[in-house]
Amino acid sequence: TQLLEQSPQFLSIQEGENLTVYCNSSSVFSSLQWYRQEPGEGPVLLVTVVTGGEVKKLKRLTFQFGDARKDSSLHITAAQPGDTGLYLCAGEGETSGSRLTFGEGTQLTVNP
Amino acid sequence: EAGVTQFPSHSVIEKGQTVTLRCDPISGHDNLYWYRRVMGKEIKFLLHFVKESKQDESGMPNNRFLAERTGGTYSTLKVQPAELEDSGVYFCASSHVRGVGYTFGSGTRLTVV
User: CB contact, 8 Å: B36 with chain A?
Assistant: First the structure.
């Protein structure tokens, strides 16, 4: 069974601070996706990384896929209250078809 | 384009009753997935359709759950009879190409009392 450990579970910071969310596994993933979920809504895809060592940037968000494709991180620079939400990582296994293994999520609160 | 639509958004039923959840994927998306999040746990895969065929149903908890996708368009997920542990949020997602990021619906929050 593939597992994705996501940390931290909760994060409360002040506007303007930087933060990093981590997803780690002992399994290799063919791709790693990051989602953001608002209350009462489904997860919304932010980015997909597929190559070991890949770095993708989305405005103030930087996503990195580990060289061994077993871990990933999401870094937010100068967080804003609008970044508040639940961030989820999800991996597609090399042998699991296209089903996703999700982390438990990081609930981020950015205080003004 | 319209997103993934799920109905109902909420359902409260008694233990032993039957509930049917519906998902309308994005038009033209052959791949349709069902996922579930129970309280305090991560989102977990239930099954995957490619058009009307079940590609992978390894995540279905037991035979009280039946998913169908007749005609390869919308899908239904029936729980019969419902048990307390079936409570959670059921998400549907669709994609045009396998392995590319999915579009999720808003989910159906199922409460079994």
Answer: no
